[in-house]
């Protein structure tokens, strides 16, 4: 299966992607995680991306599209993938269509995680992620690690993302509404969008998403 996950910052895309990718046996490809891995390794791409991310803006398409395509070319993605945070504007959505068409492939679904803005703000405020692997995500209240400040998965140190400061979150939400939301209509026109109410326990949301995929809703 080839799936796109879309939703505002803090909607739970990364959290859900980890479970859905495991259930569907496909890799979870998060452009945010790829950028953060580059930042922690101090690569030129990471240095460039950090300035945009810290300001709450999108990293330019000239960098992002190539990085996402390189990742989709990896052997583990040959039979499918779950894209989290890509595409994030119309240019990226069009580029993805061209990429897939060139390989005779198509998307199976676009899952739109729907969460009210006040909940998103609470989720981001309490989010803690792992320094060793930013796809390991916890919450100070809703999804506590077993030992405070320590990742359950790999023992890494948990910390608050630089772009989770209040003013940056406001900017990220604004960018989501202006640049990312239009891709939902773009994919509705292709009859690919499934809206998943994303309030409730993590496992309940995963169940809704899995049922929607299984029933082809
Ligand atoms: P990215 O890392 O993709 O961030 P985002 O889209 O803003 O999404 P988040 O990671 O903030 O949230 P999420 O929806 O994954 O929520 P999570 O599962 O963590 O991108 C960061 C930056 O990179 C961008 O701003 C941009 O600069 C750049 N970038 C990335 N991709 C790009 C692209 N394609 N083009 C250009 N630039 C790009 O959950 C949030 C919290 O809620 C967690 O603490 C979690 O434990 C908790 N939680 C989750 N589900 C529940 C639940 N059901 N109940 C209670 N708590 C929950």
UniProtKB/TrEMBL annotation:
It is an enzyme of class 2 (transferase). Keywords: ATP-binding, Cytoplasm, Kinase, Nucleotide biosynthesis, Nucleotide-binding, Transferase. Residues 30-59 are annotated as: NMP. Its EC number is 2.7.4.3. InterPro entries: Adenyl_kin_sub (IPR006259), Adenylat/UMP-CMP_kin (IPR000850), Adenylat_kinase_CS (IPR033690), Adenylate_kinase_lid-dom (IPR007862), P-loop_NTPase (IPR027417). It catalyses: AMP + ATP = 2 ADP. Residues 127-163 form the Adenylate kinase active site lid domain. GO terms for molecular function: kinase activity. HAMAP family: Adenylate_kinase_Adk. Monomer. This is Adenylate kinase. It comes from Streptomyces albospinus. The gene is adk.
């Amino acid at each position: 299966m080839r799936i796109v996950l879309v939703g505002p910052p803090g909607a739970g895309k990364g959290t859900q992607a980890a479970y859905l990718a495991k259930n569907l046996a496909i890799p979870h490809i998060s452009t945010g995680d790829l950028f953060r891995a580059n930042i922690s390794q101090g690569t030129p791409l990471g240095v460039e991306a950090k300035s945009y991310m810290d300001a709450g803006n999108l990293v330019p398409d000239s960098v992002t599209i190539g990085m996402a395509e390189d990742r989709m070319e990896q052997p583990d993605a040959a039979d499918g993938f779950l894209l989290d945070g890509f595409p994030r504007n119309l240019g990226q959505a069009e580029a993805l269509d061209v990429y897939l068409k060139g390989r005779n492939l198509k998307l199976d679904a676009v899952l739109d995680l729907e969460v009210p803005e006040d909940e998103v703000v609470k989720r981001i405020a309490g989010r803690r992620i792992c320094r060793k692997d930013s796809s390991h995500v916890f919450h100070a209240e809703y999804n506590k690690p077993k030992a405070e400040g320590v990742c359950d998965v790999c023992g890494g140190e948990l910390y608050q993302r630089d772009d989770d400061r209040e003013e940056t979150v406001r900017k990220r939400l604004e960018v989501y509404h202006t640049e990312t939301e239009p891709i939902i209509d773009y994919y509705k026109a292709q009859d690919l969008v499934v809206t998943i109410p994303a309030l409730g326990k993590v496992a309940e949301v995963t169940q809704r998403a899995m049922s929607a995929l299984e029933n082809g809703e």
